[in-house]
Automatic annotation (TrEMBL), chains A, B, C:
A GO term, aspect molecular function: copper ion binding
Phylogenetic classification of the source organism: Bacteria, Bacillati, Actinomycetota, Actinomycetes, Kitasatosporales
Protein name (database record): Divalent-cation tolerance protein CutA
Similarity comment: Belongs to the CutA family.
InterPro entries per UniProt: Ion_tolerance_CutA, N-reg_PII-like_a/b, N-reg_PII/ATP_PRibTrfase_C
Coiled-coil boundaries: none
Domain of life: Bacteria
UniProt GO BP: response to metal ion
Length: 106, 106, 106
């Protein structure tokens, strides 16, 4: 696994997205997070195609902190099965990646 | 290749983005999709730097469904060479990834 | 490393995001770039959790051009430690990936 990850979740209100972002950074489970939205989420529900407004939170963290971050999102989120997906950061500015690592160290 | 992928395309109108998202989910080629926009796309065209408003569609699917999803986007899209790029999902909530797999099973 | 990459940076004004995108495409360091924003960036600063509006620039390029693109962002950007992170493109439309490669060739 790459040493650094971008981890995405979505939720149905901007203030919930802000709370997820702030609580993860406060606990050093992510160095930073970016919120965008509203986006339009399209999915199948009871056989119909539905679409809803959601807000995305993109956390930047280390592989070492991933399990704790995912557990925190799962506990804090009010969906039964929140989206939590991680994509690898395979290159980056050395200074920025060092900052990510330092911010998530305790 | 990772078992799950995030697949991105872009198009020039919000209703086209919604149609791409809904038709892929309807066919179980993706479990869900998120539309964001307008974004500003910057590219070179006939030697000049152009910028246009576009909408992005981010599909979440399995590696097993990728080829069918890409073929569907290519057929449905009205650009000659639509953007279709996939990034690996290398970690995620077990429950969410199981949902992705189940939604794209037939 | 994958042959193609999606490279992300963020900055604090839309015109700076546009300038970063246009200058990279102009120099063939990226085939295209998409700007979205404002997004809300959440991070720790002097012990407090801060949030600011930022704009994101997502460049699509080749692994062969990554080092030059990262150096260009670092020089052009007015932050001391700008975010520069790359995620691999592990699949995609053959025609689109060929276009990415051609646009970044000199």
């Amino acid at each position: 696994m790459a040493d650094h990850l971008a981890v995405l979740t979505t939720t149905d209100a901007e203030d919930k997205a802000r709370a997820l972002a702030a609580s993860a950074v406060e606990r050093r489970l992510a160095a930073c997070a970016q919120i965008d939205g509203p986006v339009t989420s399209v999915y199948r529900w009871e056989g119909r195609i539905e679409s809803d407004a959601e807000w995305r939170v993109l956390f930047k963290t280390t592989a070492a902190r991933y399990d704790e971050l995912a557990a925190h999102i799962d506990e804090t989120h009010d969906y039964d099965t929140p989206e939590i997906i991680a994509t690898p950061i395979t290159a980056g500015s050395d200074a920025y990646l060092a900052w990510l690592s330092a911010e998530t160290s305790r």
